[in-house]
Amino acid sequence: MIIRSFAPPGMLLAVALLAAGCAGMPPDRGYTAVAQVLDAHGLAAAPTATVDTIQAVPADWLAAPLSLETAQRIALSHNPTLLAQFAALGIAQADAFDAARLSNPRFSLAWLDAGSGSQVTLGLAQNVAELLTLSPRKRIADGEVARAQWQAGAALLALAADTEAAYYRHVTALAVRDLKRAIGDVGTLNAEFAAALFRAGNLNQLALDREGAAAADLGLDATQADVEVAATRAALARLMGIGPGIDWQSATALPLPAATEDATDELQRVAGAGRLDLLAAQRAVVLLEEALGLARSFRWLGDLEVGVEHEREADGGRLLGPTFQFQIPLFNQGQGRVTRAAARLDAARAIAQASAIDVGNDVAQAQAAVVAARNIVERYRTDLLPLRERIVAGSRAMQNYMLIGQFDVLQDKLALYGAYEAYLRALGDYWVARARLSRATGAPLPSTAASGSAVDPAALIGAPTPPPSAPHAH
Questions:
Q1: Is 266 a domain residue?
Q2: How far apart are CA 369 and CA 363, in angstroms?
Q3: CA distance 34 to 468
Q4: Which end of the chain lies in a sparser environment, N or C, as judged by fewer CB atoms within 10 Å?
């Protein structure tokens, strides 16, 4: 029996006990750890483990108009594309499992027929050089697991931010559609009024056609708004992992801007601590530094085997004794391993440095977009909308004194409604910009709470004011 091992039989038994005592694979392949990372970032949701375990969205989640929190909760638990990211987490867990163990011993059997009898040789071999590197290899593999968890967490946080942006795009599209439908109703009423004036002989054909064309344009705008709603709904449903056959509704009121915005220093601090992809890149540098040290320390070490051989001769004699084999570093002293490890470390350092620069610039750019969007909203709210509303009020007053006609008032009202639409879109752009800032920081913003007030498109325009009764024909 030949036993090739880095250890005599007593050490082989110790190695076997060591391998048997190592912890097994996590039953959830590390998803619980990622859920804890999410919880630390203010998101209490985790993906399911496999496609087969993804269940339909609970009915009570979709019973009420969809809120942002519910949309993110659905996305973080039902988006199937996340499984690709978590497959990488499973691979890292498997690598860590393998790194914590020695390779399996090799058993050999030789049966030689000597004519007058048989010669039987049995062998058992174990590479004990791995024992010298077991501890650092396990530390590196565990670090890779943590890095994979951070990468998975970063993907989830990015999904939450993308879902937030898609949610506000959809709410904006719904609000604009409701507004345009109300504007279309106003156009229809004015077209009907123009037709009544025409029948009474108080309006010519050209003016009638102009009002009819204006009403048709407003109706087409309302129809086009339906297309935008369908597109934004599909985009949000795709992120949530919901198919087209599932019925769900969303709110149509856009919240007003947050009471305050976050300071630049605070956002940069949050990004430095919360961007998991940056932390993963920095962790890769640490792991590769340790890998380079390992390669340098054991560059001369090749396979080293210590074992036992048991041989039964054809004449019945038996032989038993230890064996020892090792590689002579004559042609390869590990220069390639060291150079490769050093090159990988250089690449990782460059990537980490670039990531740190990108994170800082991403936050600065996203914050500038939020500030600009907030200023635009405020300009609409405090300057343009009051001015447009005063113009309409003045037009109505002049119409009451019969200084201008109904259709002159309509033009001013349409300009006001156009400002309302731009205001709604500015509000939506503001919240989308905040979602992008949250993505840039890698965490929910410290000033996540909205003001508590919202803009309802129906309340903006109110019920269409019917035009005055058409005069009788002369």
A1: yes
A2: 10
A3: 65
A4: C
Would you say 141 and 157 are in contact if contact means Cβ atoms under 8 Å apart?
A: no
CB-based contact 276:151 (threshold 8 Å): yes
* Number of domains the chain contains: 1
At 247, the amino acid letter reads D
* AA letter at 261: E
pLDDT tens, residue order, the chain (474 aa): 333 333 343 333 343 334 433 445 555 556 666 766 666 666 655 555 454 555 677 777 887 888 888 898 888 888 887 767 777 777 777 877 777 777 778 888 888 776 667 788 888 887 777 777 778 888 888 888 888 888 888 888 889 899 999 999 999 999 999 888 888 888 888 888 889 888 888 888 988 888 889 888 888 888 889 999 999 999 999 998 888 878 888 888 888 998 888 898 999 988 888 788 888 899 889 988 988 888 888 877 777 777 778 787 766 778 788 877 777 777 778 788 889 989 999 999 999 999 999 999 999 999 999 999 999 999 999 999 999 989 988 888 887 777 777 777 778 888 888 899 999 999 999 999 999 999 999 888 888 655 568 888 777 776 444 444 444 444
The first and second tokens of residue 283, run together, are: 């962790």
| Beta strand extents in 126-246 (DSSP E only) | none
Tokens of 405: 């006609």
Element (H, E) at 7: none
Amino acid letter at 306? V
Q: The whole model's pTM is what?
A: 0.78
- Collapsing DSSP states into helix, strand and coil, what is residue 320? strand
3-class SS of residue 437: helix
Residue 186 domain-assigned (yes or no)? yes
CA 6 to chain CA centroid, nearest Å: 48
Q: Which domain holds residue 46?
A: 9-461
Residue 3, in any domain of the structure: no
Residue 1 counted as domain residue: no
Distance CA 26, CA 94 (A): 10
At 401, which CATH number? 1.20.1600.10
